[in-house]
Specification:
The chain is an alpha+beta fold.
Length: 318
């Protein structure tokens, strides 16, 4: 008699669930909890109403799994060892469901990022084609990718004007692809290459000098150590007094005076020329070099060094 009552109660609950007569007040999880060994129809009715109800079903078959994830993609977290078909159904419904899938293959990864472009944030060991697919859909998703390669960077900047702002030190090709996709991308680029600035503005400001450039004689050498420092080296056994040092950069000449360099020693100073140069073509050339007037201790003789060179813009940005 008790078993018969339970069967009748279960049948009533099932029919009400399937017909929808219980409306929004029905809690399918409670139905499952109160029904011993619910049959497949009850299981389906429950997960069709609330996909998360599958948590309370022991060993649901594939049909029930499908119904659950098609209702609520994240319900896959309650399914033990879902097969690829169920994984695909889950991420197609809700891309972020991939967070709950261990070792998803390339197809599942692709489906996830197509459904939710930044779902790649939850994927370990991403396939590169998946990364490209992700940023093709939403360029700014590149901010979630560590060390994206050039193909991924190019795909991202073509999809979103602002994506380049999330790329550390984008190269010339990536910068140019970004501004060709939308000139507003220039506002997100720190230190754009001259060719990139020229494409957008028709002119470019150059601050890059010819690092490593040397002017020297048997006593003294002057080298541009980096873009803002000059090192003066003395190869003699006496002090050298650099009375004047002129740095040539483009059309500008800047001077510094009275630098004492010890015997067999060197002195590093700040480069005096801090003026940027403006170019209107990559075919323009910029002059760089030094003029030095110095004396060696115990001698009143002035010695001069003068050396400049006109550099192609491409030489400055190799």
């Amino acid at each position: 008699m008790v078993h018969l009552l339970r069967f009748l109660v279960g049948g009533v609950i099932l029919s009400l669930l399937l017909s929808g007569c219980l409306g929004k007040n029905v809690d399918p999880i409670q139905v499952l909890k109160s029904t011993k060994n619910p049959d497949k129809d009850v299981q389906l009715a429950a997960v069709n109403k609330n996909g998360a109800a599958i948590e309370y079903i022991q060993n649901p078959d594939k049909d029930v799994q499908f119904a659950a994830v098609n209702k609520y993609g994240a319900a896959i977290k309650y399914i033990r060892n879902p097969d690829k078909d169920v994984q695909l159904a889950a991420v197609n419904k809700y891309g972020y469901a991939i967070e709950y899938i261990q070792n998803p293959d390339k197809d599942v990864q692709l489906a996830a990022v197509k459904a939710s472009s930044d779902a790649n944030y939850y994927i370990k060991n991403l396939d590169n084609n998946v990364l490209v697919a992700a940023v093709n859909k939403y360029g700014d998703a590149i901010k979630y990718i560590q060390n994206p390669d050039k193909d991924v960077q190019l795909a991202a900047v073509k999809a979103s004007t602002s994506a380049i702002g999330y790329i550390k030190n984008p190269d010339k090709d990536v910068q140019l692809a970004a501004v060709k996709a939308g000139t507003a991308a220039i506002y997100y680029i720190k230190n754009p290459y001259p060719s990139v600035a020229l494409y957008v503005n028709g002119s470019a400001t150059i601050s890059q000098k010819s690092v490593g450039y040397i002017a020297s004689d048997k006593n003294l050498s002057i080298i541009l150590k980096n873009n803002s420092e000059i090192t003066i080296s003395n190869s003699t056994n006496s002090f050298i007094n650099v009375k004047s040092l002129a740095e040539y950069f483009g059309k500008d000449i800047s001077m510094i005076k009275n630098i004492l360099v010890p015997p067999k020693g060197e002195v590093t100073i700040l480069a005096p020329n801090k003026k940027d140069q403006i170019i209107s073509s990559m075919n323009d050339k910029i002059t760089y070099g030094f003029a030095v007037d110095y004396t060696v201790a115990e001698s009143d003789k002035n010695i001069s060094i003068f050396k400049t060179k006109a550099f192609a813009i491409s030489e400055l940005f190799e």
